[in-house]
Automatic annotation (TrEMBL):
Species in which this protein is naturally found: Actinomadura gamaensis
Signal peptide extent: none
Biased composition (Basic and acidic residues): 1-11
SMART domains: ANTAR, PP2C_SIG
Gene3D superfamilies per UniProt: PAS domain, PPM-type phosphatase domain, Winged helix-like DNA-binding domain superfamily/Winged helix DNA-binding domain
Domain ANTAR, chain residue ranges per copy: 31-92
Region (Disordered) residue spans: 1-21
A Pfam family per the record: ANTAR
Protein name: SpoIIE family protein phosphatase
Entry annotated with the keyword Transmembrane: no
Domain PAC: 520-572
Keywords (A to Z) from UniProt: Hydrolase
Stored CDD domains: PAS
Lineage: Bacteria, Bacillati, Actinomycetota, Actinomycetes, Streptosporangiales
Amino acid sequence: MSIKPESRPHGSTDGGLDDAGLSVGRLAATVERLRRQIREAQRAADGRGVLELARGVLVERLRCGPAEAARHLDELAARAGRSRLELAAEIINQAARDRVTEATQAFLTRAVRGDAVAPDAADGRLGAADGRLGAADGSPDAANGSLAVATRLRAAESGAMAAPDAQTAAEALLANALRPLDAVAVAVWSAAADASLTLAGAAGFGPNETTRWRYVPPGIATPARAALVERRTVRFSSLKQQGLPSIGHHASTADGRVVVPAGTGGRIIGVLEVCWPGPPPEPSPRLERQLEALAELSAHTLETRTVDEPGPRGGDRALTELTDLADGLHDSVMVLLPHHGADGALADFRIHHLGTHFVDPAGRPASIVAGTLLLESYPLAADRGGLLEKIERVHATGEPFHAERVALTSLVGQVPLTAVADLSITRHGDAVLLVCRIQDQAARLANLLQHAQRLGRIGGFEENLVTGEITWNSQLFELYGLPTDASPSPLTALPAHAHPDDEPAIGRFLRTVLRHHQPSSAAFRIRRSDQVVRHLRIIAEPVLDDAGHLLAVRGAYQDVSAQHWTEVALAATRDQLAHTEQQAAERNRLALQLQRAIMPSTRGPLDVGGLQVAVRYRPAEHEHLVGGDWYEAVVLPSGHILLGVGDVAGHGIDAATGMVVLRNALRGLAATGAGPAQLLAWLNLVAHDLTDHVTATALCALYDPSTRVLRWARAGHLAPVMIRDGETSTLPMVRGLMLGALDDSEYEEGVLTLAEGDVLLMYTDGLVERRDGSIQDALDHLLVTARRPADDLESRLDNLLTYSNADTDDDTCIVGIHLPASGR
């Protein structure tokens, strides 16, 4: 049917303009009416979704039918003085207690109680920070506007749950929950095991964009990958400024982004990317809860809906296929399933299955490990940066982990056992496949050889003289100073790389190997392109066929630069040491001559006032052990007999000169008539103040022939030994610090009256000292040796030297006195 325009008189325009204006006005009114009807239909659909969910909750809680549940909902709303929509949202929130509940609770507590509220009131009740929340659609129905936020999130949940695919779910999320936040587009990405991203659903973008961004390979830096790798919400105020590519990044209407990882139970299976025309809204706890709730809805959609093809996300069949795969591998394999704690968070992994070739690093049978939690069998996996952290990251992001020569430590009876293995960790749905290849003997030997070559700086080669093929290992390229992609040099070119002075040796080497077909070696200096001169040694052997023809040459180079310079340094050190030894020998000979000139090995016997005195001096067997041992036996002007022994610390010329100083000082001080204690006190001042820090032990005694009284004192020395009536004992110890230790020391005297037949022995520690025993054991042996019968004093001293068990090869001094019986 056609309608012809009414004819009008020529030149008449007013009526036409009026009719045209009237037509445009009617058209605008029609468009507005249709838009209002669409908005009302959308609100009604949103409300129906929430109401249906609330009725379902009442059916389950009250055990009633749908009609009765609807009647109960009406009665409860009327009784509470609330709208059915508001009460329905509260019933759902109380039953769910999920992220959607958290996101809507703040809005529900401030929702209007009546139906007549001004449009501006929605902003006050719902918060101006949310922009177009509340009565953003301009509807006069302010009650529905104030409940918009609460119902939109539940409507988005309902739409996503009912969507046949991820694309429809994305459209529902944008229409119901994101447009009120001023968002203009949304993308739902599915994360694969290799960390690649597949666009599962998108809304608000052009068809060309969704086609272009259908698949993002692993390793491409995009906002979605940033959230996947960092496992947290990431915000981008402007993709153009930051230079990150993503779906719709060329359009000025989708420049700001908020990207949220989508997953549950600690496992990330996708990413939700929300777009704004400018910078996203300022972050707030309310906005974060909304986006996290929408990300969980997206994760549920990815788990239950097909993206490109069904994946192994969950399901007994997929898990069975994974265990079959584990049994078919020849490596040690674990199939791990996530284990969640009471709060729902990922706590550990259950060892669901072990492959038929599983080998426990600690040597335990598979039956003990299977079915346990990972941390129960391998508690050290919880270390920072350890195995558990790697498994959690793979489970969360889907990005596989591969590493070689990883140290795996297990506790067996509180004893840590470590094995070296190659690891591969991959995610398959909700399960994680852990492949562990314990290095076998052959692999360990190969690694050992490789490390030995590296540490020994050995480079191997093989030259096929038939085909001309030359094979070098990486270490040989380094010895030559060449990159690994350079062409290996043949043996015949060796003289060109050697120092000219080494060409004769290289020539003999090549003739022996290539012409005479005999193994040979040579040392030479190599000239490298970096001007570094290295000392190398080459060893080669020919490979012959049955007829004796040369087929190939195998061999190795070794960097002996360190050895060469060590030998040079060793030769110089050897020369210096020989010079030092010569100087030391001269010093020792001088010390020995000085000591023997002052201390003859045998002196006596001396018979004064009826007292027999004998001495023995045994020098050290080695010249470098010449020490400072000394003795004294002299008659003083007063008629008293001065007896003494001493031992200066150290060996060599310093000890010998210190001995001379102390011995001569004692002789001079004894002429004063002072007693032994006073003499040692003066001698201590000499050692401390008048020498170069000399320290020594000493034993000093004065014998009065008229009274047979012996007075004695000691300075850190061993006490004398008394032989009386065939029994031996040491004299009671008196106090006295060694000479030179302190500047002021006091010494105690001992007094002894000799009886006829008594023998008294004074000695230095070279007579008794041993490396493997205590001093008391040495003294006990001395007392036993001293009891041996002897014809006279001289024989007794000789017996002491002969039967001494000392093993230090130190100097030894002995002073012996004997008071014979009357008539002898």
